[in-house]
Amino acid sequence: MSKRVPKLLVIDMLECLEKILDYTAGMTYESFLTDSKTQDAVIRNIQVLGEAANRVPDSFRSENPEIEWSKIIRSRHIITHEYDDIDHSIIWKIITVHIPSLKSSLEKILQTL
């Protein structure tokens, strides 16, 4: 496993979030459901996002409790290990509800690093 410093992991996470937002810009839930390429791209970036979050040291997570680290990591595990039962409505909620606020929080953290 590579040893990346927290700043690089936060940058990795932000890049995933930006890709997801870019891939889904202007989409509706209905159009997302019919676009398997976008679904695949989003799911892949949620996996990378969760892996980067998992590599963030516990001390850094403790210093930044506004980030729901365990939920991000758990999302990655669910998508990876229960790939045959992905609920696209949950993925859409992650995209539309959680990602914008997570992006904002990570950008604030990055400014302090």
From TrEMBL:
<dbReference type="InterPro" id="IPR008201">
    <property type="entry name" value="HepT-like"/>
</dbReference>
<dbReference type="InterPro" id="IPR037038">
    <property type="entry name" value="HepT-like_sf"/>
</dbReference>
<keyword id="KW-1277">Toxin-antitoxin system</keyword>
<dbReference type="Pfam" id="PF01934">
    <property type="entry name" value="HepT-like"/>
</dbReference>
<dbReference type="GO" id="GO:0000166">
    <property type="term" value="F:nucleotide binding"/>
</dbReference>
<keyword id="KW-0547">Nucleotide-binding</keyword>
<keyword id="KW-0540">Nuclease</keyword>
<keyword id="KW-0378">Hydrolase</keyword>
<dbReference type="InterPro" id="IPR051813">
    <property type="entry name" value="HepT_RNase_toxin"/>
</dbReference>
<protein>
    <submittedName>
        <fullName>DUF86 domain-containing protein</fullName>
    </submittedName>
</protein>
<dbReference type="GO" id="GO:0004540">
    <property type="term" value="F:RNA nuclease activity"/>
</dbReference>
<keyword id="KW-0597">Phosphoprotein</keyword>
<comment type="similarity">
    <text>Belongs to the HepT RNase toxin family.</text>
</comment>
<dbReference type="GO" id="GO:0110001">
    <property type="term" value="C:toxin-antitoxin complex"/>
</dbReference>
<dbReference type="GO" id="GO:0016787">
    <property type="term" value="F:hydrolase activity"/>
</dbReference>
